[in-house]
């Protein structure tokens, strides 16, 4: 970490080290939950975009991160955690694509039979294709290789391997919380996590 004395030594290298260590880009790239006018979660944006929306009057502040502020030369703004759009924006229903990656995400990268997440994972058909099962959200689950081989061409009931959770089609709110990773406590009521 450079200090002011290092910059006084001169040179572009000293200045660029100072700028990188003091520019605050980490804070400006922090995540902010954006809600539609009806408080429906839409997406996650960075603080920079949230401040622009607030400044232009296109959004209002719902929740802030206590003790933090964004400062300019002449004013300071509270550090946003949640913003709500001033006008309702019609968003086409977001359909989550059925893929191996999204099935693993939906199931939290854990086997739905034994619960392990520290082993290689694969996708299993709850009702095997040979018995009329299909490629759908409701018939595909994450399974470790061991459980998938043990279950074989049987149903969970026949193999005495009950599912930990029934597979369902996810919605975009589920994927917002997965995308963010650690969810801010203030976001939980809006993401239906309470």
Short description:
The protein has 194 residues and is an alpha+beta fold.
What does this structure look like?
- There is one protein chain.
- The chain is elongated.
- The chain is built from 7 helices and 6 strands.
- It starts with a helix and ends in a 14-residue tail after the last helix.
- Among the domains are: about 25-90, no CATH class; about 100-150, DNA Binding (I), subunit A.
- By secondary structure, the chain is an alpha+beta fold.
- The strands form 2 sheets. A 4-stranded mixed sheet has the order 2-1-4-3, sandwiched between helices. Strands 5-6 form a two-stranded antiparallel ribbon.
- The relative contact order is 0.13.
- Mean pLDDT is about 85; it is low at about 1-25.
- It has helices spanning about 5-10, 10-20, 25-30, 45-55, 100-105, 145-150, 170-180; strands at about 30-35, 40-45, 60-70, 75-85, 120-125, 140-145.
- A hairpin with a 4-residue loop joins strand 3 (about 60-70) and strand 4.
Overall mean confidence score, pLDDT: 83
| Radius of gyration (Å) | 24 Å
Supply the number of helical segments. Answer: 7
User: Largest sheet, order of strands side by side?
Assistant: 2-1-4-3
Largest pleated sheet: 4 strands, mixed
Identify the overall geometry: elongated
Structural class: alpha+beta
The portion of residues forming beta strands comes to: 15-25%
């Amino acid at each position: 970490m450079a200090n002011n004395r290092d910059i006084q030594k001169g040179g572009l290298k000293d200045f660029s080290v100072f700028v990188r260590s003091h520019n605050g880009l980490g804070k400006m790239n922090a995540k902010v939950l954006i809600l539609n006018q009806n408080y429906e979660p839409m997406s996650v944006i960075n603080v920079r975009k949230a401040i622009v929306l607030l400044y232009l009057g296109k959004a209002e502040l719902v929740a802030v991160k206590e003790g933090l502020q964004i400062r300019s030369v002449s004013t300071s703004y509270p550090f946003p955690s949640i913003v709500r759009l001033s006008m309702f924006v019609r968003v086409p229903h977001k359909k989550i694509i059925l893929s191996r990656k999204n099935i693993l995400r939906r199931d939290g990268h854990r086997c739905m039979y034994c619960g392990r997440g520290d082993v290689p994972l694969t996708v299993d058909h709850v009702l095997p294709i040979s018995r009329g099962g299909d490629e759908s959200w409701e018939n595909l689950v994450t399974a470790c290789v061991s459980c998938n081989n043990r279950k074989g061409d049987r149903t969970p009931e026949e193999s005495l391997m009950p599912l930990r959770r029934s597979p369902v089609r996810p919605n975009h709110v589920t994927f917002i919380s997965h995308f963010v990773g650690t969810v801010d406590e203030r976001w939980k009521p809006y993401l239906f996590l309470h």
